[in-house]
Fold this protein.
Amino acid sequence: MFDFRSVWDVVLLVGLVVAIAPWFGAYLGRVYMNRPAFGDVILAPIESALYRLLGTSPRSAMRSSEYMLAVLFVNFGVFAFLFAFLTLQHALPLDATGAPNMGWTLAFHSAASFTTNTDFTHFTNESQLSLGALMVAWPLALFLSAATGLSVAAAMVRGFVRKDGTLGNFYVDLVRTMTRVLMPFAFLLALALVLLGVPETLTNYVTAHPLTGGTQTIYLGPVASFQAISFLGTNGGGFYSANAASPLANPSAVSDLLGTFAMMLIPFSTPFAFGQIVRRKGEAWPFMGTILIVFAIALGLFVAYQAAANPALAGLSGLGPQTAGYPVGQETRFGLTDGSLFQVVSVYTNTGANNMQIGALSPVAQLVLLFGMFTQSTPGGDGTGFGMLLLFAILGIFVGGLMVGRSPEYLGKKVGTGHVKWAALALLTHPALILVPFVLAVAGGFVTVASGSLPASAHTFTAVLYEFTSEAANNGSALSASSFNDTTWFFNIAGGLVMLLARFVPIFAMLKVGGMFSEENVLPPGPGTLRTASATFTVYITLFLIIVSVLLFLPVIALGPLAQIVGGP
């Protein structure tokens, strides 16, 4: 029986985030515009020393191409380090459990995954990763990938307020993101998780002696600090293979809600950072309104269909009946509503952490999660999610301008064909990187979708679709490990390429759009200027985003989640 009292947890948590977001977003805006901010007395000298060490300065601004080269340089270094570490981890220190070296295809997929903020894993942490990888390699990627996304979004937005063709300095943005945002708040979050019972130790494992007899190996390590940046940086890679469903990584309903809050904090605050940077705070609310409308509908559908029985999966082994009022795969420690909130937030912020078995969800719930990855922007991951939403808005403004017969402009700067081409490239890259490898996987015989019944085949179809969608969205969640084998060389190489292209092609498009805006002068508003800080604009952008996303993916939606519904048990 669904307990409606649990809805209050959702309302209070979302309300808390919405209340904090304007303040935290304003703080982010001051950080990325190098304006006076909390902590300047302590952090400014440290940052100056780091700038001298890197041979750069806040006064050394970059154009879009220079900024992109710096992004690629840093991220290629992270990728190369991860690849080398994983292929040599057995010979490196901190491998007390004897984790073997990874093969090159698995190491390629894993390095691409963590470099791109995706954290999609084709391995089992407890048996295939050394403690050194979990303590050294992964945390480096968790911090730098999140910092890259935030820095790129800040650079793109600065294009609206600059007139010299520059977007700022990537190395400066990277340093300030680390010192002002990720490191201090990850430290506070890790401390809170420790107080809630999450382990934080350098011990690799302990041997327990259960009451039923025998022994059990319990893997330990700096779990709290790992989970903190995983949530805050919208990374999602769990210290344990069970991710947030593990009682060690997520011991209680309170830690579950705290993790949910951490995943929401930065993505929901970024629109207000945008308003702070462009010095028009009212411009933040249309984007926040779009995010809240789509998110509220998604959460409502998810909870409604999870609370009901799932007849579409009744005939599939292990996925059909409910147990004690809970669907199979639901973590009962958190309750249906709080668990659903965590899962929807995780996917819609492109974090990808799991606290339930997605493969056992209702087809409608699976569709809800897929839609969040189709848009990548409601609110999306740290930085890049808002960048994608801004590209949707630019396209919407251009289309709206054509419909009313006037030159489209945004924040006093004209939206031309160049902006539209780059925005369209970013948005169309996403479905291409999902559908092309999906067709290759099926047509090439690397996965078999055919089965004895429509729901069963549609379920496998959805699982393969979900895999490439998750990788293309840099999300990292997976639908089902039992539907097909994704640990083969094809899925390692194809998935790695998808994640790299899906990360850096849109980033380059965002920087190019920002760079083109930074070369324009601000035009004074006229009688026909579109009022973007309005409820009408909120509704328009919301509908535009939903319609475009549905049209791009309707055929595969019909063959996957919808086919499970209409196919019957």
Notes: The mean pLDDT is 90. Residues 489-518 form the longest helix (30 residues). The CA atoms of residues 271 and 287 lie 6 Å apart. The beta strands are 205-208, 216-219, 409-410, 413-414.
